Amino acid sequence: xxxxxxxxxxxxxxxxxxxxxxxxxxxxxxxxxxxxxxxxxxxxxxxxxxxxxxxxxxxxxxxxxxxxxxxxxxxxxxxxxxxxxxxxxxxxxxxxxxxxxxxxxxxxxxxxxxxxxxxxxxxxxxxxxxxxxxxxxxxxxxxxxxxxxxxxxxxxxxxxxxxxxxxxxxxxxxxxx
Length: 177
Fold this sequence. Notes:
The protein is of the alpha/beta class. Helices cover about 35% and strands about 20% of the residues.
C-alpha cells in the first residue's frame, strides 16, 4: 500500500508502546503504523518503568490513562493487559502475552485473505504446541470468525480442557495423529 494514502486517524494522538518483552519486528511495525496513521509513538521498556519493578499494571494504567491516547502492550501476564485496559480506559492492543498473541493471528488471517480471498469455508490447521499463546489465539479467532480449525498436537501439548470450554461455539477439533 502507498504509505502516503494512509488515513490520518491518529493525528494529534500519542500512543504508549509498553514492552516488557522485547521484539524488533513488533516494535518497528507498531511505531511505523502509528506514525503512518498520524500519531506519535512513545516507547517504554519494562526496564525503564516502575511496571518492570513490580508496580501493578492498574497503577501504571491510571497514570498513563490521563496522558496518552492508547497503548500497545507486549508483556508476560495476560491479566496485565486486561487490567491496563480496564484501569486506563484507553484503547489497548495486546501485542503478545504468554496467554495470547492476537496480532500474529490477525497478520496470518490477512495472509489467508491475500492468498485465498477469505477464511470463510476454509479449514485452518495449526501443528505443534496446541496450548501456546498462538494456538489459543487461533482458537479464539475460529470461534469469533466461524472458520474450521484443526489443532494437531501430541496429547501432552493439547489445549487445556478448561480453556476449550471457555471458548463457546467454536469449530475447533484437536487431533493427536
